[in-house]
Amino acid sequence: MFNFSNLPPLSLYIHFPWCVRKCPYCDFNSHTLKNDLPETAYIDALISDLEQELPLIWGRPVSSIFLGGGTPSLFSPEALDRLFSTLRARLAFAPDIEITREANPGAIERERFSEYRGVGINRLSIGVQSFNNDQLQKLGRIHNRRDAYNAAEAAHAAGLDNFNLDLMFTLPRQTLSQALSDLEEAIALKPAHLSWYQLTIEPNTLFHQQPPTLPSDERSWEMQQQGRAKLATAGYTQYEVSAYARGAQCLHNLNYWRFGDYLGIGAGAHGKISRADTQIISRRWKIKQPAAYLRHAGDEERLGGTQVLSENDAALEFMINALRLQQGFPAELFIQHTGLPLSLVEEPLSAAEERGWIQRHKNRTTPTEDGQRFLNDLLGLFLPD
Asked: Cα separation of 35 and 33, whole Å?
């Protein structure tokens, strides 16, 4: 039985489902834009969707907002300004709210960075992925190395110094020197944050249908170890499996990893909400197809599905996220964000401790280096028999 004395922090995720081209590794809900962008209609739909969701979170402050996709920058600053005017009128923004927009390094987008800042966006996440032009072509990206440099410089010039660079390693036939060279170029651009993660082949992607040749597991581990050392030398602290910050951790992602609540609006958007009045935790997601979403954003048919979490579901999901963090979690965070006693997961925690995958000290549980390397095995201990 859940017992919430205080609800976890609340974030807002807004999904924009269109992109210029679908990348072969992407398994997100993104659709190639083949006709004119229905900008006004989609902003109207987002507002209608939000209004339907408000009773779930009424009065709770929003600590962060993330605009993801797809490609949010297909939408003009004027359209986003109209959306944010509505958000401010209907939601309580925390005084230090973090508002992130995903950005691509294209020329048109760079020119708008200052305008987006005027809307209220105070953080960018720029999808660079690589500085190697050959690799960018293999990944289906529509920008080149010079575009990536220009985007970072434009972010600094617009006063958006709190930006993230997305960078991947273990790319098709990538060598160790190429992976480290990508990392060196990213560091030289002085982002406040780096998301440096391994390319994985996901179902329902072109790469899954036509798998490229990727580096071996041993070479991948070598890339990761040497890359982590390079980032540490440059002053970037690793605080999650693939997240490195120089004083500016991503508040929105931290809320996910700490099993916080989040409202999701937009085609295919997911949400997770805890309720003190009903003492339940539920997940809900919206229909994926943009055309259907546009028709039903204001009614119940916008929902693709809902799920009420069991105690075991909540405990497992907390661990799947929190054990990705370098600092792990304090016992009181588990109790507050799940509404459950820590004793519920004592058996798998003890098993993990015996294997040397976690350590517990002063009410804090932290993954060890072996626990991070064998994270899937560690998390498997929390799965039901």
From this structure: 6
pLDDT in tens, 245-264: 998 899 999 999 999 999 99
Query: Are residues 252 and 65 in contact, defined by beta-carbon separation less than 8 angstroms?
Result: yes
pTM of the model: 0.95
CA end-to-end span of the chain:
21
Alpha helices in the chain (DSSP H): 39-57, 77-90, 107-111, 113-119, 133-138, 145-157, 176-188, 206-209, 217-233, 251-257, 290-296, 311-322, 331-338, 346-354, 369-373, 375-380
- 3-state class (DSSP) for residue 165: strand
How far is it between the farthest Cα atoms of the chain? 58
Domains of the chain, residue spans: 10-255, 326-380
Architecture of domain 326-380: Orthogonal Bundle (1.10)
Cα gap 121→115, rounded to integer Å: 9
Q: List pLDDT tens digits, range 181-202.
A: 999 999 999 999 999 999 998 8
